[in-house]
Write a sequence for this structure.
């Protein structure tokens, strides 16, 4: 390291504080501000319509549906019972907070951290299956269910069901949920922002990162037999790519 | 107007380098994050297309930093520790490298980072660090030299990674 770089290092060390300049946290703050601004704009022109609805809403209060959408970013919401949901881009979730606070209908991919309530099971009605839980962390998409904590029951439309515990996944095909042997490495990385790999084949890693960042990643050269072990949080995709590239002596390109 | 996804990609690429860039002007990490976040919000609101987004961001952060300095009554709107003037390109490269070093320091094992900061930031001697952390001087010296070694190898390798080949 030459003298200039020593200068940079001492500048960084002089000001360094743990947890400062956290890209993920800052992004959540900035994008949150932006989406609130959009909502306000929509409300402005939706105002007359909303006024007309008030009477109707008053009478059907108990039956009201609350609907959440995520457009081009993952969005997190807290339901009335304290359950946290994170919607992947394109997902929708709706429920009746007053009539049935523990039953939701959804499309797309949604991550759940369900508030525990032994006497009231939480039910997710997805296009391909119904998932019933007490209190746990899991995610449901159009074709699969992945469980991170606790235990859930997955029922297909014809009534066949499987029970999943932490770390297990079910595939939803032709209306029958089946236990999947090789689960995706990080089914919920997009919601939590942390990737963990344990001797994971490079191809699976790239699939994972592509899905998270919404880009297409390709290897220049031979990727057969290469695998990755470790953990990192998602800060900069470029850094991650450079890092994997250096370590495995390959070149990764995004398209 | 830029799409949310495009802004997110820019944010993930330039947020930390811009923070380091602003830090040269402001010298106060707390003030820095507001300035950089406001600049991104301003970019988001831009109705007209921006030709060179990176240059736009750097100059927005620079202008806002100088404004912030003026507001606090400091009449020294120049980067505090530059050896003379450096070009915009050099300043941008420097910030990118410093951002990597910052990430690297972030990823050091906790004890190594503590020892390194006590020595290089706070100017404590090995003996003083050893007393403070209840370690032997030998261990302290080890932690610091390992930490510097990691930092000197180049930023990307610094994330705590184990790779295996089969």
């Amino acid at each position: 390291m030459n003298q200039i770089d020593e200068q940079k290092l001492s500048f960084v060390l002089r000001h360094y504080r743990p947890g400062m300049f956290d890209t993920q946290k800052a992004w959540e703050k900035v994008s949150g501000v932006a989406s609130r601004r959009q909502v306000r704009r929509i409300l402005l022109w939706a105002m007359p319509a909303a006024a007309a609805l008030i009477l109707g809403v008053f009478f059907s209060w108990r039956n009201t549906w609350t609907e959440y959408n995520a457009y081009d970013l993952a969005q997190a919401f807290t339901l009335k019972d304290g359950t946290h949901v994170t919607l992947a881009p394109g997902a929708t979730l709706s429920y009746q907070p007053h009539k049935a606070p523990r039953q939701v209908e959804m499309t797309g991919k949604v991550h759940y951290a369900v508030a525990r309530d032994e006497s009231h099971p939480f039910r997710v009605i997805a296009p391909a299956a119904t998932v019933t839980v007490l209190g746990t962390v899991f995610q449901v998409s159009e074709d699969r269910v992945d469980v991170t904590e606790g235990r859930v029951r997955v029922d297909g439309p014809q009534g066949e069901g499987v029970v999943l515990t932490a770390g297990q996944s079910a595939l939803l095909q032709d209306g029958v949920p089946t236990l999947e042997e090789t689960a995706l490495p990080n089914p919920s990385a997009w919601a939590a922002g942390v990737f963990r790999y344990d001797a994971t084949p490079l191809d699976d890693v790239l699939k994972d990162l592509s899905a998270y960042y919404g880009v297409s990643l390709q290897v220049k050269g031979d990727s057969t037999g290469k695998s990755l072990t470790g953990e990192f949080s998602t800060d900069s995709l470029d850094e991650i790519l450079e890092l994997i590239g250096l370590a495995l002596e390959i070149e990764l390109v995004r398209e | 107007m830029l799409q949310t996804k495009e802004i997110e990609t820019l944010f993930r690429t330039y947020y930390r380098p811009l923070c380091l860039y602003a830090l040269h002007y402001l010298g106060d990490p707390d003030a820095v994050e507001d300035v950089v976040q406001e600049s991104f919000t301003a970019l988001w609101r831009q109705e007209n297309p921006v030709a060179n987004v990176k240059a736009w961001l750097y100059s927005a952060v620079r202008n806002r930093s100088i404004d912030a300095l003026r507001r606090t009554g400091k009449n020294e709107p120049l980067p505090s520790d530059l050896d003379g003037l450096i070009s915009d390109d050099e300043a941008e490269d420097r910030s990118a490298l410093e951002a990597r070093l910052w990430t690297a320091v972030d990823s050091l094992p906790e004890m190594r980072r503590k020892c390194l900061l006590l020595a290089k930031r706070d100017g404590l001697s090995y003996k003083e660090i050893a007393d403070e952390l209840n370690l032997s001087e030998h261990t302290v010296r080890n932690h610091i030299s390992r930490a510097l070694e990691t930092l000197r190898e180049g930023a990307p390798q610094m994330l705590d990674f184990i790779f295996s080949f089969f």
About this structure: Chain B is about 70% helix and 5% strand. Chain B touches chain A through 52 residues (CB under 8 Å). Chain B has a mean pLDDT of 80. The longest helix of chain B spans residues 4-26.
